[in-house]
Request: fold
Amino acid sequence: MRARALIYPAGDKMKEKIGVYVCECGPNIADNVDIDKVIEVISALPEVAVVERHKLMCSEDGKKFLKESIQKNELTRVVVAACSPKQHEATFMKVCESAGINPYLFQLTNIREQCAWIIADKAEATERTIRYIRAALRRVPYQNALEKKEIEAKPDVIVIGGGIAGLSASLLLACGDRKVYLIEKANTLGGKVKELDKLLPRMESSSNIISQKIKEVENNKDIEVYTNSEVTEVLGFLGNFVAKVKTNEDKELELKIGAVVVATGFGMLDIKQIPRYGYGKYDNVYTALEFEKMNTEGKILLKNGKSPKSIGIIHCVGREERGYCSGVCCTYCLKFANYIKSKLPNAKVFEFYQELSIPGKAYQKFYEDTKAKGVDFIRSQDIEITEQKGTLTVNYKAETQTLEPQNVDMIVLAPAIEPNSDADRIAEMLKISQGDGGFFQEEHPKLAPVSTSMEGIFIVGCAQGPRNIPESIVQAQAVAGKIFSSLIPGKKLEPEVKTSEIFEALCIGCQACLTVCTYGAIYFDEMKRVCVVNEVLCRGCGNCVGSCLSGAISTKHFTTIQLHQEVVEALR
Amino acid sequence: MKGTKLKVTKSVEKTIVNFLEKGLDKKCFDIVLIPLKVPAGDSFAWVLVQDKSLLADANPLPPVMTVQGAKALSSVARKGKMSKRIAVVMRPCEIRAVIELSKSNQIDLENILLISIDCPGALPLKNYIENPKESENKFNEILRSAQNDKGTQNDIQWGNESTRPICQVCDKFTGTDIGACQSDLHIGILGVKDGNISLIPNSKKGEDILNEMSFPVEKLSNNWENKVKELVKVRKEKREKLQEELKPQIVGLDNLLETFSTCINCQNCQNVCPVCYCRQCYFESEKMKLTSDDYLMRAESKGGLVFPPDALLFHIGRMTHMSLSCIGCGACEDACPMSIKVAQIFSFVGDKSQEVFNYTPGKSIEDALPLKVFEEDEFHTVET
Reply:
């Protein structure tokens, strides 16, 4: 391969002392890239001051070696050819910093994921490696030193939704050195749990538990509760959010907070959408929550005031339509059978289920005890409710066979759990995504189950998917942990350095950038009629740059000239 | 179609001017933006007319498009809303450009009444300046043919070979949804058999103006609509035919290089383009200017380099920037001193790119610019 000099268009760029460091990444790179050849070709380039290799540059030994070499050779620019920037860009930036060179004067070239791992032919992978290093060499003289900034981070938190998840999160978070703002849409706290009579599996009183939590929240001086209130706008990022809240007095409150906890809970499927269940059409067909209410009020009665002699409890209402199992209905349907058996010991109870889902260490016994009380469990599908002269009939199939319909006096339906009716609005406001079933999407289903794609915005409880009470509380505790570890009072945050800037002289004020900015980081200056970047909010994603036809925007560290030089050399 | 009939007195142009005078008298609007014949008599200029007497020289349908109307209006109404009510009389392609510019905040439409007119096409500027008098006569003949229409195809000379090539294949020469043109009021002059032209309200603003001027809004005969649709059909076919002919000249880099090889880099096309609204064209900016070493390197690798450099890059770049908003007005081609078929090529590419996004520029202020919206489910054609 011919050692061809790179041409640095501006003469003074030649004055830079550039060091190139090739990492073998153990066998990961060395096995499929001829590193001797790479060193040979790159060393021959006149603009390179030093070329070195190391077995594992990210190891303690490798970092020490890199630091000492940078200092010994008095380098002004550094290129490391190693793995993906996702993996070790930050590592090597720190090394550069410790060696006394601005970390933004360094470039990491990915020769592992983009060469060694994906190109079968070693010679070709080697050629590509050289090409990429040349591109980095061409780019790095055009990079500018960028200075880190530190900003105050607000430790305070806003919790949207005052159900069991929101209450639990608020109580944990209000540990004395931060304020929690709990915003509830309804006029009281407690959410759906307040509408339940007893809690599984111990059948303790739900109202005791929830009212205790509410009392604790109300008595906590670090929690400010706003009922009948709504969050209308949230802008910013972890450590620096500004939220607008419309309170019950129609006042607008502006809160400066560091994190947002979304605990907006759930809604129930409107069963009228599935007419075959007869809800709303026949008397004595109730939803689960209606039945809870009836039981709480003390008596299970038919519309005519008599006690029902037989009750059908129907699971899985809307499961197929919604496309998921709501997970909590089977267990509360067992609870309903217990409600009935304790109030009306002689009433017949039929549980119609499609699939029974009662996992967990405590529930098997509960299921068996319930069954022993004389409750019939009928596996059924294609349920249709009809009525004749006040008698309800459950028509159903088992597998493919149509079975004898079952007459009952009363029916209780367990509808699917749905996202709260506000979910779409909240997702749009917070710029978080909605996943399966319209529930808020977690950042990663296994590894980051309570975080979202927006740093500093967390989801707990049924806002994230159907959950039971202990699961919701566990999530609330998880969120508290996330917030405690990332927003430490008094500790400063480093905002993004690679932000966008708009050159006033080129901006014509068409506001295309403002429309595409997901972070609300651009505003329109009415006086000057140009767009302006709010550097604190900007995350440097570059969306605005792509939308600006005038070329008035540029993102630091990804300027046109830097990218141009890099691409020109990569394609040469 | 509902609207008001207006009796033609003297000429269509005079009738329209009378209508504007009446609007000014009744204070339905305070000021009018309209082309006026220049004192020398050999061109037309956009004038913001406050003094009614000036309207004597107004021509709502001049034979040529000197300055694209949207460009004129943008210079009036770029910096915020108008404090007076202004009536603007333009060709449909000019109105469509106005709508595009308003989406990019280059025209504030508040207090602006957009009036479009059926357009017979415009004459090439080059031909007009050679002999203005003769050109005007020729244009008059084309325009009047609408009124002499006996119902056969040949009666109407609109968009005949004397008009600009892009006008000859224009299928959006009219207002309302038929012309994908969101003016407030459209003036229909085709299909005039009874000596009347039609004022067709196309928005709430348009309806209000007719009410204010006490014109009855009633059901119109189908003459105008039928005639317009008939002509649209003919034009669509012609347009397709022209594009088929153009294709071999512009598909692929080599053909494009050939087609634009005579370009002298004057960038007139960009300067006159109504939807090129940047303060400074990206392709004229410092970002496009490389150092001598860069050019030396390019010359070295290619064996030779044309200067000024990147002429084709300028056209392709401009095309990617504005083709979704290209309303096919033809101003670029009129301005090209080298007679490159700029408008024909750009509107061809525009048609295709607009089709991809199911977007018609100028059709509705409600349709967001494709660049500004993100749809998760779109543009599958580019997926592999």
